[in-house]
Structures
1.
Amino acid sequence: MRTALTDLVGVRHPIVQTGMGWVAGPRLVTATARAGALGILASATMTPEQLRSAVREVRSRTDAPFGVNLRADAGDARERVRIIVEEGVRVASFALAPSRELIAELKDAGVLVVPSVGARRHAEKVAAWGADAVIVQGGEGGGHTGDVATTVLLPQVVDAVDIPVVAAGGFHDGRGLVAALAYGAAGVAMGTRFLLTSDSTVPDAVKARYLAATAKDITLTRAVDGLPHRMLRTEMVAELEGGAGRLRALYGAVRRASRFRRLSGLSWPGMVRDGLAMRHGK
Amino acid sequence: MRTALTDLVGVRHPIVQTGMGWVAGPRLVTATARAGALGILASATMTPEQLRSAVREVRSRTDAPFGVNLRADAGDARERVRIIVEEGVRVASFALAPSRELIAELKDAGVLVVPSVGARRHAEKVAAWGADAVIVQGGEGGGHTGDVATTVLLPQVVDAVDIPVVAAGGFHDGRGLVAALAYGAAGVAMGTRFLLTSDSTVPDAVKARYLAATAKDITLTRAVDGLPHRMLRTEMVAELEGGAGRLRALYGAVRRASRFRRLSGLSWPGMVRDGLAMRHGK
């Protein structure tokens, strides 16, 4: 199947595997690339060194194109952009819209820039700044975007911009791909569906929880990192949301941050800087 | 275009004009029927006498099939069912799932029963009770249904039941119809799009408000009648939601109920009964 997305990126199928933190590592991205779709490494949960090594690992296993997702508001975003450019990564995707300067720097180096957005005006903005394509995520998606449903948001964005539009939020099978193409999208991006594949490193127990869940088990919460996040209503979410009093909330936040720091290898000053940037980010 | 819906109902296009209170009267339904889609009279804002006269008015202007929407939990639901049967209306649709007995009574009289649902288990329930088709409304729809987005809910329901599924919630043009068919639906149901036609009796000033609105101007509120309702964030909604104190809220509720009663011609006891039924309804 040939669309504006397959032509742009050089993949066989108009399907994007999104950059999910922890989940989208070299193993999943390599498998996705080999299967003919666009895999995206999640770099927010990697140090710059880990990112470089992950890129090289994918590159050593396949010649197919792949991408790297980064947070435009991360303190070390420029360092990560340099790694992407130096390593010759095909696509840079962003969870939050990047600045005009960051887009220009990547494009000058021949990297395709594909931001994720949750509103029509954000799509118009990044398109005007030279983005090569845009991933539009409806409110039913898991990422940090808006609350407008895919059926409403997607046709609006397709009408508003001339670059290829990739539809995200609620897509999980071939029927969804056809529906997205009907709306004028050039392909679909999926997260959860890839999280549940055998190439995902997510533990089987977690996959089982997802498979057993129904739509009623999904919640929208800001309790995890301050930004709206659509996810399974797990014990952790219940604990975070039910915490009585600000002191307990602060204690919980520090404890979680500590754990996140240990797991991610990020520094405390870097985390505080990123946390403040996320709070102020749009 | 031929689908399971056009075959079932005998319409030329797999499109349903929903039974919007106040809006879906004889004029709009006649125009819809003549255009080849399925128009549905909204009976909740009519007295039984007004309903009978509206049905006769449409019948006098077109031979094409049309439907009547009613509240299964209304105190006089059986009286309205009798009118539908006596007047030979083709389709009975329901905003809330009807009882097994009500479905049986309508089917015995040769009326097609098409409930609206917002959850897979409700679709399974009414299908098991003999409903002829089901309108599945995603969370982005305006009616009183659930909060699961169309992209997630629709394929679930299509997989779960064997009767024709009509997709509602976020559909507004031909692209949406193709998308719905891709998911396996037999057609789409639309409200707002018909509200904005020249055959809608809604005042031009109101249509202008809709046309000027963006996705950001939509709100989900229980302030109007106690059930979740997705609608324009108007001054009225702001006033209802911002009302300080329970006394003021009670005063406002009585004032609005009084106005609703005057406009609808319903009796006070009937309104109170219906209001309690809605509160207890699922």
2.
Amino acid sequence: MRRPIGVIDSGVGGLTVAKELIRQLPYEQLLYVGDTSRCPYGPRPKEEVYRYTWEMVDYLLEKNIKLLVVACNTATAYTLEDLQNKLDIPVIGVIQPGSRAAIKASHNKRIGVIATEGTIASGAYPTALEMIDRRIRVNDLACPSLVPMIESGDIEGEQAVQIVHHALKPLKEKNHIDTLILGCTHYPLIKTLIENEMGSHIQVICSGEETAREVSLILSYQNLLNKEDVLPVHEFFTTGDKEKFKRIANAWFDEPIEFLRSIELG
Amino acid sequence: MRRPIGVIDSGVGGLTVAKELIRQLPYEQLLYVGDTSRCPYGPRPKEEVYRYTWEMVDYLLEKNIKLLVVACNTATAYTLEDLQNKLDIPVIGVIQPGSRAAIKASHNKRIGVIATEGTIASGAYPTALEMIDRRIRVNDLACPSLVPMIESGDIEGEQAVQIVHHALKPLKEKNHIDTLILGCTHYPLIKTLIENEMGSHIQVICSGEETAREVSLILSYQNLLNKEDVLPVHEFFTTGDKEKFKRIANAWFDEPIEFLRSIELG
């Protein structure tokens, strides 16, 4: 069916999920909302994240989406269950796909998770992992310095290397993990920095690829795949600075984005 | 919920799927039926495969399974839609998970598929791939010599290398593919032989791993995960020779199988 897929994020991080959705589901149209003006969500109280998330969702429901992807770990941690209960369309978060992929990848069952303060405090990753395998041991770590750095766009050079080095230090000291979940959709934008810091023996899981796979399955399982033969124009909406959003999006995607509009929420 | 997962196959091939299910979903009990005495299904008429598949399904329904995995590509090609329409539990085949994984892996959108005559004749893989991405080009090839070789257990040595060499030759001659789907669950048992023959530039997709991921998602999505904390004893049933089944299973699994029983179907 021709209705679009909705994707919401606190800012540009969800573009890592959107890119994979476009690659793995090229005939599905995306409507993306990035709440850049209120990013980061990580340090905000649960009630605030909940309210902001619902504002994005309501905006997209007006546009008749057939499935919602919560491409923000913090929003997933705080609101997924509520959204799944209240909406009559499928709602896919990023925490369970990342967890399932980590379980598939890990051999020693020791999995690291880096994420925002909010996601770590929620315990959502340990819960999701242990729901499937009670023998998994999780080392999780809040990295509050990373999202502001990524949203600023300054992700190359020695300063970025140093920020990543300091952020990951506590995890490296317990480096018996063999798999690391990037538990924030911003982090794949600095995946190389993180891999260089952690070393090549650690498998790094980006939830974007995994989430796209699961969206593909649910669309197929629910018979919601678009059967048209025309490549769609995706629509991006940001509550923040359009130029900065466009710069980061165009650096991340293979092709420049065609449709970008500023919106106000709340 | 504590009810088991049912897995059916024409013989031992589905063990490649079962192994991944056990690894990725360690707290879920499997009931596995391998119709070894009537294997291979590949050259049989559709009606016969349909009847044999339903006999396995009816056997497992009596045991109150909560989800069915059709771990045989030929049976998936011929019966999946019918099973999904008629059963009130989720039914997962192996063709769509393999297709989604190949779309995720391929960069040049040229995908090879090797499978039994029945699976190739059904067109199930091109249909599944094109349903998601109309730009995919599929090169598919029936390899009728491979399943009998694998069921015989003689999968090492020069003769096996030669059988694989001759089977794959037509595909190598069109080797612009970058991804090869093993479209028969027997083939992962000779994955190394196939990889050596095709060369390291070709990514080989085993549907077992991918199917286990999708079963994990559907159990979670439908709230069917087992929440107990006891590792289950899996049960295996074969219509053929128990000793041969046990030998192949024990070579394939990390631990010897504990429960194996002969059954008659039909």
